[in-house]
Design brief:
Length: 156
């Protein structure tokens, strides 16, 4: 399982590019508390290609996006949980505000996001397209939210 985890995206890119001809799908996110919406989304993303890479926001990046108190789980723990999923081939981390540098290194055929995003709102969309890839927005899976889970855990 830990052979799926590459904290260094450049090392992962080298491994991926050593086996040409595979269609690489990349998605990114915090994945702080994994729930059925995440699992369904990742399985759908994996179906878009031969290899699914999940780029995890670093702890600093999650705090910048979600605020103090987040993430609940450290990046290494989030990576371990994701790596245990059969749909996930590799996990890497990024510390920047956007996954642009990770996309430049991995050069996916498909960059996938959930239905709570629109392609025109993704700063990384232009990079994906410039590298010859495409952006795919998968339908939002309603009823699941890490933020809602955190609220419920803390009570009313």
């Amino acid at each position: 399982m830990t052979r799926k985890i590459f904290p260094d995206r450049v090392r992962l890119a080298e491994q991926l590019h050593a086996k040409p001809g595979r269609s690489i799908v990349l998605t990114n996110g915090c994945f702080d508390l994994l729930h059925p919406g995440h699992v369904t989304y990742l399985a759908r993303a994996r179906a878009l290609g031969d290899c699914l890479v999940v780029a995890l926001n670093s702890d600093r990046s999650v705090r910048a996006l979600k605020g103090p108190g987040r993430p609940l789980n450290a990046v290494e723990d989030r990576a371990l949980v994701l790596a245990a999923l059969s749909a996930v081939d590799y996990v890497t981390y990024f510390d920047e505000d956007t996954p642009v540098q990770t996309i430049e290194a991995i050069q996916p055929a498909v960059h996938c996001k959930g239905g709570d995003y629109r392609p025109e709102d993704l700063p990384e969309a232009a990079t994906v397209q410039a590298l010859g890839g495409r952006v795919v927005i998968l339908p939002f899976i309603s009823g699941y939210s890490t933020t809602d889970l955190v609220r419920r855990m803390h009570g009313p």
